[in-house]
Every structure is written in structure tokens, then in C-alpha cells.
Amino acid sequence: MPKPCILVVDDEEDILELVHYNLAKEGYQVETVATGEEALAAARRRKPDLVLLDLMLPGLDGLEVCKKLKADPATAPIPIVMLTAKGEDADIVAGLELGADDYITKPFSPRVLTARVRAALRRRRVEPPTGDSVFRTREISIDLGRHEVRVANQPVELTATEFNILHFLALRAGLVFTRGQIIDAVKGSDYPVTERSVDVQIVNLRRKLGDAGDDIETVRGVGYRLKE
Question: Of 24, 85, 97, 215, which sees the most CB atoms within 10 A?
Fold first, then answer.
């Protein structure tokens, strides 16, 4: 099986060289481009397995590239991992809302880079469970058919919205989701789901899950994720 192809988009030559070297060392096929326009052309031509996309690009910026890739049915399934400078919380949130899968803040270590790439590719290969599946993550077990959650094999009573939020986060454990993405995914009928109420739901989930509630992490300025 050929190794996955990674498209790297950054206008800093030293970053391109660093990323190319470390990903190629892991056996990945790597293509690098320096502008948003080149990124769109390369993604449509090659259909890479993943795009590492810097947000701060001259001309067509990374957010616009992300938007265009996710709007095109031919490139929409490609996972996008954003490369961002520290403190760009607003851009991170905007990118996630546009459909990006994850982000890495600069400066980053090569080990973190390759680990996040592997995780994003692994998640892409995972098929969502069927309607009667039991889905497990760490100590939490989610039975979709019975609409039942257990922690360390002990049943936990959740509302429909709490169940849906937990299931949504568990399906893509490790990924960060904004409050808006969580609202779009669950749209609970038993509770008015607003950005503020998402925080309330998370507080309730953590309390009901006991020690396992620590697996639901707050990513400051962005949203929430469930530990892998």
C-alpha cells in the first residue's frame, strides 16, 4: 500500500523544509506549495490524503482555502490540519467552523506534528458505528441501540442532549469542536441548545461521568474535545 500523500501549504520556506523533512522521514509522500492558489490547484489535481494548511498566507489566505476545499465535493472529504501562530483563537474557531479537522500552533515540535498527522489520518479511516453498535473510549461505553452509557460498567443516566453531545465527541475523540459545531451536530429537543447551554451541558456531563468526566477537555478560546 502506498503511503498517504500530504499537501503542505506555507509561505515560509524554512517551515516547508522542516515539515517536508519530518513527514518524508516517516515515509509519507509530501508535496509543498507556498500560496493559497497553488494549494487549491494541487488539492484538486492530486487529491491528497491530508492538507497541512497555514492560515497566514499572502493573497488567498488559509481560511479562504479551507472554505473553498470544503465547498467542493471533490475535495471536501480531505482532512485539513491548520498551522497557526499562538494567540490566533479567533482564526482557529473560524477554521474549525469552516470544516477544518484539527490545528497545530507554531512553533511546534516534529514529534507533535507527526503524531497529529497520524491521528488525523487514522480518524479518517475509522468508520462511524452503526445504529446498534457499542462504542467505547477509555472507561466510557456508549450503546447506540439501547441509548445507554456506562462508565466502568456502571450505568449513567443522561438526557438525550447530553447523550448526543457525548456520542458526537466520542466519534472523533482527540478533535476539538467549537460550541457552534456541537450545536449543529446535536440540536437537542429536550433542552434549548445555545452556545451558553453547551457549557451547561458539558458541566452536567462531567458531573454525571464522575472521574471519567475529566476526559472531556476544555480548549480555551476554542471549544471542547474528548481525550483519545
Answer: 215
Same structural domain, 16 and 104: yes
SS3 207: helix
Looking up cell 488525523, which residue turns up?
Answer: 120
Beta strands in 76-197 (DSSP E): 80-85, 102-106, 134-137, 140-143, 148-151, 154-156, 177-178
Q: Which of 90, 125, 160 is the last residue of a domain?
A: 125
Q: Are 79 and 175 in contact (CB under 8 A)?
A: no
Tally of domains within the chain: 2
Longest dimension (CA), the chain: 55
Cell numbers for 164? 448526543
Q: Mind listing the pLDDT tens digit for each residue in 11-52?
A: 999 999 999 999 999 999 999 999 999 999 999 999 999 999
Residue 139: CATH number of its domain: 1.10.10.10
The CATH number that applies at residue 73 is 3.40.50.2300
Same domain (yes/no): 99, 161? no
Integer angstrom CA distances of residue 160 from 17, 56, 183, 188, 192: 48, 40, 13, 7, 12
Q: CA nearest 153: which of 134, 169, 171, 139?
A: 139
Amino acid at 165: I
Please tell me whether residue 54 adopts helix, strand or coil conformation.
Answer: strand
* Beta-carbon count within 10 A of 78 CB: 19
pTM here is: 0.67
pLDDT tens sequence across 75-90:
988 999 999 886 667 8
